[in-house]
Structure formats: structure tokens, C-alpha cells
Amino acid sequence: MKNWSAQLRKGLVELAVLAALRDEEAYGYQLLQKLNALPAFGLTESTVYPLLARLTKDKLVKVRVGPSPHGPPRRYYQLTAAGKRHLDEMKTHWKLLTQSLDTLLESASEDS
Amino acid sequence: MDTTDSPTSALDLDFETRSRLEQHLDAVDEVLRRYQQPRSARAAIVDELENQVLESLAQRIGDRDATLDELTGLLAEMDPPEAYARNSIDLPAESISTGFSFPGEVVESKLNKATLLGLVWWMWLLIALITTLFLINIEVTAKADYRASPRDPLWTSISAIQTGWGIAIFIVVCIPGFIAPFASPILGWVGVSQIRYSRGRQHGLGLAFAQGALLPITGIIAFFGGLIVAPVGWGIHRMFEHHKMWGTRGPDLSEVQWIGASWIFGAIALATLISLIVIWIVVRRMWRKTSQPV
After folding, report:
1. Which of B205, B222, B211 is nearest to B123 (CA)?
2. Taking Cα atoms as reference points, which of A82, A84, A4, A13 lies closest to residue A45?
3. Quick one: DSSP state of residue B66?
4. What residues contact B118, with CB distance under 8 A and at least 6 apart?
5. Which residues of B touch A46 (CB under 8 A)?
């Protein structure tokens, strides 16, 4: 059960990260805190930072480097036009998936 | 990407604490390197991590200097370096989403498509050459001048390549084949690049390299061969011209043949030797470059 839940969350990380960057840019740690403020996730840096690097490589997010009061320059991530399109596609797919699952779960609960 | 200079760190760490942080960051970088994350991605991930550590410390202790114990405590709450690989090994979906592969994950290696296309194109050149020879050498009968006597035209023998169907075959089959010496090396280098960046998902590096290097190597042979053989031929030609112009007795035919043959064989041997040395150096350097991981 635990593994299933973790698998599900991992599969949704990309959607969650893109959705979190939809309206405003964020630097890595800020994004991690934003995602972890939501009850369902529980993501750690070893998942989010490599994903951000991959999204940058795939040109789904772009990076603006700004000053940091503590360490190396902060990397502010924001969605590119391709990233927005990708997010919209994922959102459509996700909605369809949840609707279908809701239908299945509702019919299952009616049967029982 | 817009760049801004990094400000000096406001959070001071003593040497020992800084070393502990560097040790953790190096360990994460090493794990990422082992799993073939590109250098730019590794640098970005490690920078994010360093920022997170320093910002978390600042949130906890304010502006005062962090101690080694405080840093160690914080690092203990964070993912260990091996988590950058382990999380993904346990969960294959993650390895796909992060874009690099892990031990335990079965990766089916496929022959690079550009390389395969380049190979097929070279074979097409062979087909084009055979077809062209066939079209030139096969003779067909055709009406020589049907306007002079439409009922009893003169018949003549022409090469198949001069007929309408011969030209059509030449355009469709032969011309694309003759492009191979230019297209295949380009496809070879495209293949080399794609295989290097595929992180083990594609193979055929040797074949792609051979395709990519074939034309440059032919160029080297032609260059050094031409550079040495041509002046020898020109010198022999000038010797004949000189004797013809001044009416002087030149060397005997047997003597000329012997001198010419020795010079030409010597020149060819020298050209071959220089070409082989240069090819060896070029191929070795190119192969080392292309074999390096990216």
C-alpha cells in the first residue's frame, strides 16, 4: 500500500511542479516548500531538484539567475510556452483520468 | 538566461563546518555523476542543495554563525546523497521522469537510427553504381528518325541511359545513391552525437564513427597523395617537354620508364606513409573525443 502511494505521488511530481510554476516563478527551495505545504505530497530535494534540471534541459522551464542572501545565486524557474502547453495536456489527461476513476469508484461503492 | 553576480554569503561557516557541507555536496555530485547526469545539471542540483542548506540554517539560527553540530543535524534530516539514486531505483517511474537511468532498470539498447540510415545509404551508392553501369552498357534499339519514313523508320542502337525509362531510373535510383558520400558522413556524426547523449539507450558508436570519419579520411589520403604524386608527374612531364623543345636527346625509353616508375612508386609510398600517420593521429583523437561520456 505504501509503495503504491509513493509510486502514485512520484508519477505526479512533474504535474505538481509544472502546476506550481504556472502563475509565478520560484527558486528550488521555495518550490519545495510550496509543494510540501500541501498535505498530499511530501517531496524531498532528491526528487525535485533533478526533476527541475530535467525540465530545464527539455526547455519546459526557463531559468533566471538572481542574487541569494546566503549561498550561490538562486535559480528562479518559470514555465516556457512549451511548458504551459505540456501542463495543459497533462491537466486534460489528469482530469479525464480522475473522472474515469471517480465513475469506477462510485459504481463500486454503489455495488457494495 | 539572465545572470547576476553572486553576493557574498551572509551566513558564515567556520572551516570545519564549511568542509562538512562541501563533503555532503561532493557526495551528492558524485552520485549524480555515477548516474551520468550532465555536468550542467549536476551543478544546478548541487547549487539548489547548497542554497537550501544555508537558507534552512539561516531560518533556524538567524544571522549568527552555524556550528558543525547544527549543520550535521540539518543534514541528517535531509535526503542522504545515495537518495539521489536510491529513490529512483526503487521507483522506476522516477528514473524516467528525471531523465537518467539507474542500475536495476532494464534499458533496451537500440541501434541508432541515423547510423542505420547512413549505412543503408552507403549500400544504396553501390546499387546506384551497378544500375548506372547497367544503364550505360545495355544497348537498346530505338527509332533513329521516324519523321523521315514513319511507316518504315530507321532503327539504331543506343545506350539504355538515353531512353526515357533509363533517365527515370537514373533519377529515382542513382542520383539519391550518389549523394551518399555527403549524406552518410553527416548522418554518422549525427549518430555519434545522439549515441553519446542517449546514456546507453542507443548503440552503434563504432559504426557511426566510421561513417562520420570515412569522408575526412578519404580527403586526407587525396590531399597527401595529390600533394606528393602530382609534382612528380609534373616533373616527368616537364622533362619530356624540355627535350622536345630543345631537340636534345632525352633519356632512353627504358631509362625514362625506370626513372618514372621509381619516382612514382617512391612518391606513392611516401604519400601512403604520411597519410597513414596522419590518419592514425586523426582517428585516435576523434575516437577519444567521441568515446568520452558527456
Report:
1. B211
2. A13
3. B
4. B183, B184, B185, B187, B188, B191, B208, B211
5. 79, 83-84, 87
Chain A hits for B44, Cβ within 8 Å: 49, 52-53, 56, 63, 75
Partners of residue A74 in chain B, C-beta under 8 Å: 51
Q: What is the pTM of this model?
A: 0.49
For residues B294 and B193, give the distance between their C-alpha atoms in angstroms, rounded to a whole number: 10
Contact (Cβ atoms closer than 8 angstroms) between residue A91 and residue A16: no
Q: Which of A79-93, B90-104, B156-170 is predicted least confidently?
A: B90-104
Which of B1, B49, B87 is closest, CB to CB, to A64? Answer: B1
Nearest chain B residue (CA) to A78: B1
Rounded to a whole number of angstroms, the CA Rg of chain A reads 17
Mean pLDDT rounded to a whole number for chain B:
79
Q: Are B180 and B124 in contact (CB under 8 A)?
A: yes
Q: Tell me phi and psi for residue B187, to 5 degrees.
A: -65, -35
Chain A hits for B18, Cβ within 8 Å: none
Distance from CA of B220 to the nearest CA of A (A): 38
**Phi-psi group of B23: left, alpha or beta (phi > 0 → left; psi -120 to 50 → alpha; rest → beta):** alpha
- Whether A11 and chain B come into contact, CB under 8 Å, resolves to yes
DSSP element (H, E) containing A87: helix A81-111
Residue B124 pLDDT > 80, yes or no?
yes
Conformational region of residue B228, where left means phi above 0, alpha means psi within -120 to 50, and beta covers everything else: alpha
Nearest chain A residue to B7, by CA: A67
